[in-house]
Specification:
It comes from Sinosporangium siamense. This is Succinate dehydrogenase. Keywords: Membrane, Transmembrane, Transmembrane helix. The chain is mainly alpha-helical and 267 residues long. It has one domain. 52% of the residues lie in helices and 1% in strands. The radius of gyration is 22 Å and the shape is globular.
Length: 267
Amino acid sequence: MSQMTTDNSVRRQRAQLKVRTLRTDRWWLAPAFTFAALALFVVYGFWAIFDPSYFVEPYVAPFSSPCLATSCPEGARFLGFAPFGDWFTLPPGILILGLPAGFRLTCYYYRKSYYRSFWLSPPACAVAEPHKKYSGETRFPLIIQNVHRYFFYGAIVIGAVLSYDAVIAFRDKHGEWGHMGLGTLILVINAVLIVLYTLSCHSCRHITAGRLNHFSRHPLRYKAWTWVSKLNAKHQQLAWVSMFSVMIADLYVRLVAKGVITDIQFF
């Protein structure tokens, strides 16, 4: 019993370095850049949620879509519906904040990123960290990370909504099809990147065919799994690119709505 107790206590300890690090390169650049980029995303997200300039015909800012309250401009309402009625007076972004935010917060890649950049756990390979004990994601609050696959289902819905917004952006102010401005192009690119990032998720790969024992018996699921696996190899890159694309798309719509810039019209 004493030997078992000793072994368990050893396993709870981090591998300790007697010096801060033996590395001579600028290892701190990566966590510093990650910290700055993720902090920028969080700060911008909170600002965008409470900013009222989220719609200018035919564009809806991604951080406020879908718009589901009657307080939303008529053209901004998703499919023309307002299921939350007049009683919901908070910014529309509050309604859908939890889905994309929860998906990214629990994402396997983002976990590694903010564990290293915000908690320094560890800040880089072969670098000492301030935490002496390690319990993994088995205790509160990190055990909540295990709900990632459920946020994935919500992220699929958000990806579909942004794709719908991108299609609607091909209509002009009078509802006629054939319009295309720079905002249309930006929203289309953002929707594609958001969908690819969502589908490249590790949970998506597992759900597609991760539990099959015989691929030969499920050829369609195997092909889907192969395609998702290729996307999964680019999950880190898609996480970063889609994060910046959604900020750029959102900011562009808001700047046009505020009259700060004018949307470039192609036809």
